[in-house]
Write a sequence for this structure.
DNA sequence: GTCTATATCCCGATAGAC
DNA sequence: GTCTATCGGGATATAGAC
């Protein structure tokens, strides 16, 4: 079980990021001190600064890495989907991808305001990019006569807000499986923009 | 323009609450210091403690007062509504009531975690009560054959999350009037639980 | 009713020992 | 690679002058 110095270092870095994510998600960035993060890892606070230049960079890294991951994975799926199935594909991807990443979802939507200038702009543009890919689906669907949408931007925000709401509050308490959740809420999102006869 | 001591005191209390709400909403409870609240009011920090026993009580008061107000106003409307119109009534009420209270919405959903023990339980139970009134509407609608709902609790959360998402991001930028927003999103919520033929 | 001054503590970050 | 010790500052909250 020999461990090199390098692998120890890499491991410590991962553990720091994991604990920071957990605490930021649970108590909020501003309420969590570097001492508290260190304490939970049985480290001294000075040690943290070998792995991150400051607290802000820790948050920025978590947010940027997550958004990069979201965009990359959605990009891999968002090809060669038949037009009328694109919205369902998006909503199912969104739920499936994020349901095991509740802590990332929490900080992505609650802690953006704690990023400073450039950091905020960077992460915000990544999020806009993701939202834009949904807006394109909605616009296309409307133009092709599939959907009844009055305002694409707000409709996109509404759908993502709905899906995130479910993600945040969903607990695996046995009532519903992940498959159930995925199906139910992608269906709800789909129906919310459907054309209906009155 | 004579002002009594009493009215000055009442005014100061209101100003403190208003500024605290504004700052908590914008930067988050944990990131806002008592000094900052005082500074924005051209007061010294000691003065704040004449009007609130501590910072926590300031947050609790804002959250409790808001939730009491929500429940009271919805209670006044939620009478004598024809069963099949109850969901639309709820969603329209929710949007109309909250759209001028964005800061309250922000703290209600972001700062709950900063309430301590009893305070959290109290405000959380008020929120549950409000959510429960939506769940009752959904359950009734499903039992009467109006709605296609697989899980009432998560559906309720999804609808409220969707509506709140719109509230948070909606800006009066001229594209849409408040009436438009109210109509569009109560319609989306309604359609999301509608029965459709496949 | 508000201010000044202060007690007590915790914060982010750094220097240097081991 | 991690620790101890510490700097400088800002936090909540209180005491007492005016």
């Amino acid at each position: 079980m020999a461990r090199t110095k390098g692998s120890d270092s890499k491991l410590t870095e991962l553990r720091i990021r994991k604990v920071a994510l957990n605490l930021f998600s649970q108590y909020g960035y501003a309420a969590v001190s570097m001492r508290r993060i260190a304490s939970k890892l049985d480290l001294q606070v000075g040690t943290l600064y070998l792995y991150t230049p400051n607290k802000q960079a820790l948050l920025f890294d978590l947010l940027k890495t997550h958004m990069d991951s979201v965009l990359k994975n959605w990009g891999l799926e968002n090809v060669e989907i038949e037009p009328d199935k694109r919205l369902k594909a998006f909503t199912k991807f969104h739920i499936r991808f994020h349901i095991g990443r509740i802590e990332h979802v929490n900080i992505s939507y609650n802690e953006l305001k704690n990023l400073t200038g450039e950091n905020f702009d960077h992460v915000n543009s990544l999020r806009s990019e993701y939202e834009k890919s949904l807006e394109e689906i909605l616009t296309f669907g409307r133009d092709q006569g599939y959907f009844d949408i009055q305002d694409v931007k707000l409709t996109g925000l509404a759908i993502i807000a709905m899906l995130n709401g479910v993600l945040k509050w969903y607990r695996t308490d046995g009532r519903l499986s992940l498959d159930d959740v995925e199906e139910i809420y992608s269906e709800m999102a789909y129906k919310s923009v459907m054309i209906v006869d009155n």
User: Anything to note?
Assistant: The interface with chain B takes residues 26-31, 110, 113-114, 150-151, 154-155, 157-166, 168-170, 175-176, 180-181, 184-185, 188-189, 191-194, 196 of chain A (CB under 8 Å). The CA atoms of residues 139 and 152 of chain A lie 7 Å apart. The two ends of chain A are 69 Å apart (CA to CA). Residues 5, 8-9, 12, 43-44, 46-47, 50 of chain A lie near DNA strand D (CB under 10 Å from a C1').
